[in-house]
Amino acid sequence: MLFCIISVWFAAITVPALAGAGEAAAAPHDSVAGPTEQLNIFGKIVNPHGAGVEDAEITVFLNGKELKHPHTEHGYGGKGIYTSLDGSFQTVFTIPRGMADRETAIRLEVYKSSYAREKIEISSQNIARGPGGIVAKADLQVKRIAGPAFWIATVVFILAYVLISFELLHRTLAAMLGASFMLVVSYTMGTIDPDYHILSYKSAIHAIDMNVIFLLMGMMIIVGILKHTGVFQWCAYKCYQLARGNVVILAIILMSFTAVASAFLDNVTTMLLLTPVSIEIALSLGISPLALLIPE
Known about the structure:
Elements: H1 2-26, E1 36-46, E2 57-62, E3 65-66, E4 71-72, E5 81-82, E6 88-96, E7 106-111, E8 118-121, E9 127-130, E10 133-141, H2 148-165, H3 171-186, H4 189-192, H5 201-206, H6 210-229, H7 231-243, H8 247-264, H9 267-285, H10 290-293
Parallel strand pairs: 1-10
Antiparallel strand pairs: 1-6, 2-3, 2-5, 2-7, 4-6, 7-8, 9-10
Helix pairs in contact: 1-3, 2-3, 7-8, 7-9, 8-9
């Protein structure tokens, strides 16, 4: 059942993403009659910490007129300019020759949900003119704001964490439901009001780290094998042997062993395996099991 849910969810996020990429590749561009030249604009959008802002939408205005249908070199989408994963962008416009003279005003408007809408006018020092056209560089810092997308994502994260912490739902299913809900909000309410756009299909796919998935899978296999060998019980009794009946030293040794084991194995599984042994040792010493379990 869980495998079916994961398969449907993965198909739901990959198919629209691939379809969107195909539409972007097939998007036609407006042709300009008469002599033309190229307007090349590139730059980087960063947040106050200097990190690149991904998927920020950029609108370009030339002498107060919005330029449409650009040829996008980086980013995604056929209906506008979007920054790439590191916040950089590059786009090329074909404009009538002479439209951009030395007094030309090139202005950029940057927008992304949970960020303030910013405008920048490219200074003459960042504009170069040559026989092939015009090259302009625009770097901009955008500030974060707590918009609707921020609060929705925060509430979903807290609810998913509560479901996992109290084991009301399987952690994989809880995480999938949270991610699916944010994607649904982004592509329903987010299409009506961009302030509700939380993340894109592309961002969701890039967030899947296969290294982590295979690491966890390998850890589960190792734990499953070690559980049947009794190595955890053997290690716990060796700790008792080293402590020679001293409760304080025993607690310190068990804490250290639990910390090392949890660094390599699943935390919950480690505690489930060590708890019965710790209780048995505590009862044999005639002390409360909490004296060993709480430090662990």
